[in-house]
C-alpha cells in the first residue's frame, strides 16, 4: 500500500500555521518607517492588547523567540544582587533560574517534581522580605503541567505586595483563562509560534504599571531589549529597530481570525476577547479528548493532577520507549509529535493543543495512535476504537453541557488544580 504524506505538526511550538497568516506574510513587502507600517503596527498592538486581555498594561513586541522576552523581563526588572524567586517544575522554569543567575540575581527556587505543580505552602515558605520579583510559567510545556497563577498572585498581593509577578504564558495564552489586571500579574509573556498560529520569531510582553515603575530604578545591562525604549517607539507606531514586518502582518491576520471566531450578524468582524475565550475552550476540549483517548489506549498521563490544555504529556504503556510513538507517527502518518526534553526523553511523548487545531485533527491523531499501538505494542491488548470511543463520548458530553461552573480561582472547569485554594469558589 502506498499513500501520500501530508505532514502535520502536533508540536507545542511551532504549531500549525493559519493560511490567512501565511498570505499576509507574503504580501507584507513594506518598509518599517512608513505610514503604512505605522498603521499596521498600531492596529496589531491594539489587537494584541485585547487578546492578552489587559487594559492597564502596554504591549511590547520583540523580534526574538519567546526566550528573548523572558530575558527582557529579567534584564529590565532586576539589578545585580536582587533577590528573586523562581517557581519551577520543568525545563522552562529552569530557564528562569538560569536567566536570573545570568543577570546576577540571588535566586531562590521552589521546585516540584516533573509532572507536578508546586504547593502554595512551598511558595509561602520561600518568599522573603527582600523578594523583588517572582518568575513562573502559566503552563510548563515540557511536562504538560498547568500552574495556578491566580493563587500565586493572590498570595503576593496579601503578603509580599512589593514583589512583581512575571508570568511566562507563552503556551498559557490561548489555552488557559488568564486575567492579568484582575489578578495583579505585572508582566505576561507570549510567543508567536504558539497559540497565535504564526511562525517563530516574535515574542510579546504585556507590561503593567508597577513593572514600568520598577524600571526607573533597575540597572541591569540591556540594549536591544530595552523595554522603555520600545514603549516610546511603539507609542509612535514604530519599533526601535527593524521589526519582523512579515510576522507582524501575519499576527494581525491571525488575531483577525481569532476575533472572527466570535463573529455575529451584528458584528461580522467578531471580538477578540470572546474569540480568545473560544480558543481556550477549543484547547480545553481537544486536550480533554486526548487525555480520555490515551487513558483508554493503555497509556497514562504524566501530569494527572494539573494537566494543561496547551499540551498533553503521555507515558506510554510500561516498558515502551516514548520515541517509538514519535518515530512511528512520523514515518507512517507524517504526524509530528515531540519526545520528552532532557531526562524526560524516552519517557514521555507530547501532543499539542494550542492554536489552529480542531476536532478533526484530534480524531485523526487518536486514530493514528491506535494504529501504532495495535501494531507495535500488541501486548497492550488494545483494540481499534478504544481511544476513539473515549474521545467521541467526551466530545459529545461537552457539546451538550454549557461550560461548567468554575471550581477554582484559576478558572478550571475540571478537577481543581492541586493547589486546592480554600477560598476557591
Ligand atoms: C516555547 C516556550 C518558550 C520559549 O521558547 P523559545 O524557543 O525561545 O520560543 C518559553 N516558555 C515556554 C513555556 C514555552 O513553551
UniProtKB/TrEMBL annotation:
Binding site for substrate: 350
Cofactors required: pyridoxal 5'-phosphate
Domain named Aminotransferase class V: residues: 28-288
Keywords from the UniProt entry: Aminotransferase, Pyridoxal phosphate, Transferase
Modified residues (N6-(pyridoxal phosphate)lysine): 194
GO terms assigned for molecular function: alanine-glyoxylate transaminase activity; L-serine-pyruvate transaminase activity
SUPFAM superfamilies membership: PLP-dependent transferases
Pfam families for this protein: Aminotran_5
GO biological process: glycine biosynthetic process, by transamination of glyoxylate
Domain of life: Bacteria
Keyword check for Cell cycle: no
Family the entry assigns: Belongs to the class-V pyridoxal-phosphate-dependent aminotransferase family.
The protein, known as: Aspartate aminotransferase
Organism name: Granulicella rosea
Amino acid at each position: 500500500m502506498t499513500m501520500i504524506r501530508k505532514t502535520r505538526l502536533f508540536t507545542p511550538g511551532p504549531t500549525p500555521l493559519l493560511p490567512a497568516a501565511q498570505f499576509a506574510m507574503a504580501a507584507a513587502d513594506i518598509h518599517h518607517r512608513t505610514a503604512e507600517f505605522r498603521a499596521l503596527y498600531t492596529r496589531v498592538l491594539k489587537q494584541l492588547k485585547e487578546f492578552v486581555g489587559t487594559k492597564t498594561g502596554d504591549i511590547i513586541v520583540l523580534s526574538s523567540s519567546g526566550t528573548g522576552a523572558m530575558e527582557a523581563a529579567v534584564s529590565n526588572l532586576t539589578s545585580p544582587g536582587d533577590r528573586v524567586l523562581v517557581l519551577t517544575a520543568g525545563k522552562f522554569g529552569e530557564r528562569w533560574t538560569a536567566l536570573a543567575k545570568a543577570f546576577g540575581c540571588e535566586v531562590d527556587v521552589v521546585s516540584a517534581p516533573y509532572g507536578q505543580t508546586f504547593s502554595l505552602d512551598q511558595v509561602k515558605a520561600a518568599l522573603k522580605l527582600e523578594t523583588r520579583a517572582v518568575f513562573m510559567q502559566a503552563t510548563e510545556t515540557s511536562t504538560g503541567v498547568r500552574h495556578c497563577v491566580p493563587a500565586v498572585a493572590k498570595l503576593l498581593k496579601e503578603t509580599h505586595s512589593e514583589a512583581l509577578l512575571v508570568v511566562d504564558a507563552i503556551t498559557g495564552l490561548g489555552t488557559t483563562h488568564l486575567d492579568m489586571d484582575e489578578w495583579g500579574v505585572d508582566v505576561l509573556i507570549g510567543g508567536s509560534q504558539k497559540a497565535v498560529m504564526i511562525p517563530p520569531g516574535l515574542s510579546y510582553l504585556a507590561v503593567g504599571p508597577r513593572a514600568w515603575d520598577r524600571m526607573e530604578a533597575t540597572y541591569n545591562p540591556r540594549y536591544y531589549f530595552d523595554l522603555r525604549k520600545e514603549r516610546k517607539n511603539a507609542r509612535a507606531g514604530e519599533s526601535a529597530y527593524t521589526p519582523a514586518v512579515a510576522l507582524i502582518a501575519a499576527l494581525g491576520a491571525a488575531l483577525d481570525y481569532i476575533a472572527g471566531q466570535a463573529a455575529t450578524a451584528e458584528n461580522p468582524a467578531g471580538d477578540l476577547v470572546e474569540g480568545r475565550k473560544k480558543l481556550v475552550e477549543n484547547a480545553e476540549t481537544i486536550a480533554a479528548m486526548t487525555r480520555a483517548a490515551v487513558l483508554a489506549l493503555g497509556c497514562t498521563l504524566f501530569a494527572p493532577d494539573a494537566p494543561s490544555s496547551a499540551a498533553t504529556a503521555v507515558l506510554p504503556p510500561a516498558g515502551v520507549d516514548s520515541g517509538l510513538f514519535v518515530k512511528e507517527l512520523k514515518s507512517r502518518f507524517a504526524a509530528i509529535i515531540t519526545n520528552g526534553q532532557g531526562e524526560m526523553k524516552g519517557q514521555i511523548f507530547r501532543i499539542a493543543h494550542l492554536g489552529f487545531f480542531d476536532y478533526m485533527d484530534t480524531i485523526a491523531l487518536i486514530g493514528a495512535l491506535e494504529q501504532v499501538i495495535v501494531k507495535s505494542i500488541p501486548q497492550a491488548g488494545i483494540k481499534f476504537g478504544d481511544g476513539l470511543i473515549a474521545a467521541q463520548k467526551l466530545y459529545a458530553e461537552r457539546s451538550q453541557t454549557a461550560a461548567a461552573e468554575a471550581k477554582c480561582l484559576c478558572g478550571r472547569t475540571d478537577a481543581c488544580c492541586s493547589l486546592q485554594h480554600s477560598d476557591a469558589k
